[in-house]
Amino acid sequence: MSEPTTAAAMPTARVAGCPFDPPEDLARLREDQPIAPMAYPDGHLGWLATSHALVRAVLADPRFSHRADLTHAPLGGTRMGEPRPAPPGIFTAMDPPEHTRYRHLLTGQFTVRRMRRLTGRIQEITAEHLDAMERHGPPVDLVEAFALPIPGLVICELLGVPTGERARFQDDMSKLLSLEVSPEEKIAAFTTLTEFMHALVLAKRADPADDLLSDLVNGTDLTDEELTNISGILMGAGFETTANMLALGAFALMSHPGQLAALQADRGLTDRAVEELLRYLSIVPGTVRAALEDVELGGRLVRAGQSVTVSIPAANRDPEHFADPDTLDLHRSAAGHVAFGHGIHQCLGQQLARVEMQVGIPALFARFPTLRLAVPPEEVPLRTDMMIYGVHRLPVTWDVAQDE
Ligand code: HEM
């Protein structure tokens, strides 16, 4: 076992012309050093795990913590200041037993009844946006017309945010997820969002409705501060992630016409297609844990206190787990992919995200069977500057039927 001697930063650059493939350096690392020394932007010397087996091992191991005051941020610009303990309610950055308590309260809210009702609303919201696209006519920016508003409205629906308020939080949310916005701007955006969510919590206490936030406000002993922070997490975690899967997913399908034709010919392929797109595109670059004690991992010694970043794109393209991993194959079983993470912090909203994609993607290509890019693929602006990968804009066009 050896400790790190040299370390490089986490490879994130996508290669021009291959918008769907992770950086080549990740594949090289997975082959040569699936657990490799990594230099963190704050100067910390930690590790990067790239194989499917090691990524899952780290995420399932209670000796690795997700506490905000112990982990070092793997990408620049992801933190608003020094590491410090998570504020009340920010369960994503807590370990058991605190994490377990919040998670239990929230899992109880994602009921079959609520999911079923949301599915109906997702179908309606999707149809409304496709109608609007049709009325507008080509070309449109698919991000603005489809991919961003649908998950935004679904989160509003889930939490009980008046839908007219969506635009108010969309910009602030983007700033929080940007790698290039200054810490001051982030703090300002965070403050505005927190004030918005706090006002919403107070409104739900005064006038409860049939939504997740009202149930949490009135059915649990969570404080206003906890409720405000939990709402902020759900907004943040559920909005841009799904939006980017819808947009990048559509881009990937338009770039693989054979796969798109297979999906259009057989709606029964939808569930597999969604899992494969999640695996193939891996829009979340990774997540980080800190060792609570010395841990031997893949033949290396991770010292107590060191951070280990796990690369989700590298794990999801690991040939040891997925045959021919760099091929988009909607017929394959992508079971075991880690696009939603793994272990106790595995995505809380994954069923909701799946429904949004299972409804949205086939409906888009059924309504516009000739949908295609309106610009050359290399002109599509990629989100290489954001914590969640995807596209900033996706100009698309389609053939309009001539009636007369
Ligand atoms: C956690 C991905 C949609 C809420 C996660 C994690 C990943 C992820 C990778 C694990 C993070 C970690 O271990 O550090 C995605 C993707 C989505 C999506 C790719 C869309 C395609 C959603 C939606 C919601 C949501 C729609 C909510 C409505 C959460 C929450 C957590 C989480 C609350 C933290 C869970 C915990 O710490 O216990 N997500 N997510 N996500 N996600 Fe998602």
Automatic annotation (TrEMBL):
PROSITE patterns: CYTOCHROME_P450. It comes from the Bacteria. Keywords: Heme, Iron, Metal-binding, Monooxygenase, Oxidoreductase. CDD domains: CYP105-like. The keyword Membrane does not apply. Its EC number is 1.14.-.-. GO terms for molecular function: oxidoreductase activity. Belongs to the cytochrome P450 family. This is Cytochrome P450. It comes from Nonomuraea mangrovi. The lineage of its organism: Bacteria, Bacillati, Actinomycetota, Actinomycetes, Streptosporangiales.
